[in-house]
Write a structure and sequence with these properties.
alpha/beta
């Protein structure tokens, strides 16, 4: 298949490119600059230089090209978001970027569209056990609603798009591909809560494998949770990450301190409770995480 991948140079995009090419797909990779285009070309990817938020420029860039599938894997997160404002650019990519990429899909002649969603679509608080039949979060008047609304928007847009086979991939929190994490751990600049904060996680290699499986096996109009087999606390995950690179254990701080200095990130780390099932992805996509828990993932690095 011809795959148009938006986010080809990102944390997930890099392993995803390799797996798509290994599976025999032809990849067109969206990037915003010449440096990104050069990196993609070196991998055997056809670069497309445009900004997903510049609708006219994007449509001009894809004119004359063709693809069978569009993969929307764009975020604007270069580091862990601390404040709600740090999520604004990613929220915009989920709303405006999705709309623009759907327009590009029509120019490309693509009839299949997979969008990057996230397990926090179920809610940022004590949600509990969820699967794909569980409802997404609703407006509760909290500062988290704009982020939830953006997650809902990307899914609703691809499901409602006429002539498009829309699929939403609700990823767990990525680990295993962030090169900036090691120096933060070595300098103990990544504190964790003393208690609380349970979420679904997934190694980037497994997230990429699940995405590749969904390209051909995912059912139109469906969402799939791509998480490993065990929800885990932030403190446990980052302590294992530190151990894997020979860094000291992260500082453990009271939850109220983290929420004070990081209103977004601190609240997510201390108040989330997301125990996310991956049974549907295993059943329908034929996908199994190679790293069933974060412990196996970090042990392999």
């Amino acid at each position: 298949m011809n795959i148009f991948l938006a986010g080809a140079t990102g944390t997930l995009g890099r392993p995803l490119v390799r797996q798509l090419l290994d599976d025999g797909h032809r990849v067109l990779g969206l990037t915003r600059d010449a440096a990104g285009a050069q990196r993609l070309a070196a991998l055997g990817v056809t670069p497309v230089v445009a900004d997903a938020l510049d609708r006219a420029g994007l449509l001009d860039a894809v004119a004359g090209l063709s693809a069978d599938v569009v993969l929307h894997e764009l975020t604007a997160l270069k580091k862990a978001p601390l404040r709600h404002a740090d999520m604004a650019a990613t929220d915009r990519l989920r709303v405006e970027g999705t709309a623009n990429l759907l327009a590009a899909a029509r120019v490309l002649g693509a009839h299949r569209f997979l969008t990057q969603s996230i397990v926090f679509g179920y809610g940022f608080g004590p949600v509990g056990a969820v699967d794909e039949d569980s409802p997404l979060g609703v407006d509760d008047g909290s500062p988290f609603w704009p982020h939830l609304a953006a997650i809902r928007s990307t899914e609703e847009q691809v499901f409602a798009a006429e002539g498009i086979e829309g699929i939403a991939l609700r990823y767990g929190l990525f680990y295993g591909g962030d090169q900036a994490l090691t120096p933060m751990l070595m300098s103990r600049k990544l504190p964790v809560p003393r208690a609380g904060g349970l979420a679904g996680w997934v190694h980037v290699a497994d997230a990429a494998a699940g995405t590749v499986a969904a390209v051909t096996k995912g059912r139109a109009g469906e969402a799939y949770n791509l998480v490993d087999d065990e929800p885990a606390a932030w403190a446990d995950v980052f302590t294992a990450a530190a151990r894997a690179v020979g860094a000291p254990a992260p500082l453990r701080l009271p939850g109220w301190v983290l929420r004070l200095v990081a209103p977004y990130g601190g609240a997510v780390m201390t108040r989330s409770d997301l125990r996310v099932s991956n049974a549907k992805a295993k059943r329908e996509l034929g996908w199994e995480p190679t790293y069933r828990t974060y412990r196996e993932g970090f042990a392999s690095s």
